[in-house]
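Saturday, quiet lab. Running sequence design on the structure tokens for the scaffold JK sent over.
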């Protein structure tokens, strides 16, 4: 071994502790800095839980800045209070494992991906971030009052952006009572009205005649019929041994008139113009069967299996909203919005912005398009037909002076008693600003139970936009 080889070996040996030290730095850095926010946010880490209780949670505000959740401090720990009670209960939830308290927890506590990796050196955050929602507290209160004593839901969307303006489910509950009383919590959990379920997002219902909006859009978009195509309704339509009926014979009707009077036999006959897979394709284009994709629990819809022996009957029934189709109120509102928005499906959203305690903006919502369900021309035709439903047809209950409203009624037959009352609308018809969809369970015709609720919501929301 010569001197040069010797010095090379010495350098190699000297490298070993240096490399080891570097690895140790990387390892410690990984856990102490990079992974630290995640470890501290882990709610099963009891030390972390104690630490989280010391963070003042950020505010949850409505679109106008009204607080939907409050805070109080006891024994050095922060707790939530519920100043607006039932009117926003499905949004706020009733503890840190429900509502936006669960889904927006990291933002509200300034932890996880909302925490600076260097927060460890400053004992972590002491105050969380403020979250401003898109909902309007007054609209929530009006919807809650109008649904009092019923089971059902109200969904209101901004027709220009997809922002959720109201999301009400009845029956609701008083979150504060559930926090304070074990007895109340037991009653709540065993309530046959299932107040915990957010019917606006989790309720699945047969759509009834509000489905005729989608069916009319699909057959016109395929170019197989238009508004003026004529059909004959003698009150009954026989298909494969099944009989589809209307309350009376509507006589000769155009597709436009068939929507106005909600003629079932005409829409069942459209099965000759559209195949089952095309119909399902349009349901998917309208995202009719998709979840809400909001920071709250939601259900998906479902549609029958069109491969069985009774497929023609099932398709005929599905085209006017019966069959085996089930949808959420949010999905019907999203479909209505697509018609109002030139055929483009917009993603509903609930969070308008997230702001740090310093006031710095951490997130600001941007409207998001999910795709084109039908052409702008088709959407304009359907919108015109829906305006006629209010002007000439079954939707007169939502007519307003000075503003044209476009709408569709529905009465969805179901195995649980009287039909569910549906009503979906947008306004102004020629310059849509708001969409309102209402379902009232087992309440009969859409024009009777759901219609007046839609009307009052429209009056309030259009007052806000300055349209009336
Ligand atoms: Zn008819």
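Result came back. Writing it out in full:
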């Amino acid at each position: 071994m010569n001197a040069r080889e010797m010095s090379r070996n010495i350098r190699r040996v000297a490298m070993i502790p240096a490399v080891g030290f570097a690895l140790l730095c990387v390892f410690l850095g990984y856990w102490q800095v990079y992974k630290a926010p995640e470890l501290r946010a882990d709610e099963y880490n009891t030390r972390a839980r104690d630490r989280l209780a010391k963070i003042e949670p950020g505010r949850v505000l409505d679109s106008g800045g009204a607080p939907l959740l409050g805070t109080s401090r006891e024994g050095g720990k922060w707790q939530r209070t519920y100043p607006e009670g039932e009117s926003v209960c499905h949004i706020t939830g009733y503890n840190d494992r429900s509502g936006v308290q669960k889904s927006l927890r990291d933002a509200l506590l300034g932890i996880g991906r909302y925490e600076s990796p260097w927060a460890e050196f400053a004992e972590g955050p002491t105050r969380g971030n403020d979250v401003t929602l898109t909902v309007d507290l007054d609209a929530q209160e009006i919807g809650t009052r109008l649904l009092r004593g019923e089971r059902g839901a109200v969904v209101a969307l901004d027709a220009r952006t997809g922002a959720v303006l109201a999301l009400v489910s009845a029956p609701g509950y008083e979150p504060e009572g559930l926090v304070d009383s074990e007895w109340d919590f037991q009653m709540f959990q065993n309530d046959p009205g299932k107040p915990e379920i957010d019917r606006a997002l989790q309720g699945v219902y047969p759509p009834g005649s509000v489905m005729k909006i989608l069916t009319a859009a699909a057959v016109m978009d395929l170019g197989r019929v238009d508004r003026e195509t004529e059909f004959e309704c003698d009150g009954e339509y026989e298909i494969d041994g099944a009989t589809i009926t209307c309350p009376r014979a509507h006589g000769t009707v155009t597709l436009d008139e068939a929507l106005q009077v909600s003629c079932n036999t005409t829409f069942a006959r459209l099965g000759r113009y559209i195949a089952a897979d095309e119909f399902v394709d349009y349901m998917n284009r309208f995202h009719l069967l998709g979840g809400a994709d909001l920071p709250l629990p939601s259900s998906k819809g479902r549609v029958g299996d069109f491969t069985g022996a009774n497929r023609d009957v099932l398709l005929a029934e599905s085209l006017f909203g019966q069959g085996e189709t089930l949808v959420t109120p949010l999905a019907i509102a999203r479909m209505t919005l697509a018609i109002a928005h030139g055929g483009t499906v917009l993603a509903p959203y609930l969070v308008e912005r997230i702001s740090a305690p310093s006031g710095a903006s951490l997130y600001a919502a941007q409207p998001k398009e999910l795709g084109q369900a039908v052409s702008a021309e088709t959407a304009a035709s359907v919108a015109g037909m829906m305006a006629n439903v209010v002007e000439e047809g079954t939707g007169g209950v939502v007519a307003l002076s000075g503003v044209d409203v476009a709408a569709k009624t529905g009465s969805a037959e179901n195995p649980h008693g009287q039909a569910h009352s549906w009503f979906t609308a947008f306004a102004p018809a020629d310059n849509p600003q708001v969409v309102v969809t209402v379902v009232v369970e087992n309440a009969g015709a859409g024009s009777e139970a759901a219609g007046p609720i839609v009307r009052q919501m429209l009056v309030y929301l259009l007052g806000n936009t300055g349209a009336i």
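Notes for JK: The pocket of zinc ion is lined by residues 233, 246, 250, 263-266 (CB under 6 Å). The longest helix spans residues 3-34. Ask whether to fix the surface positions before the next round.
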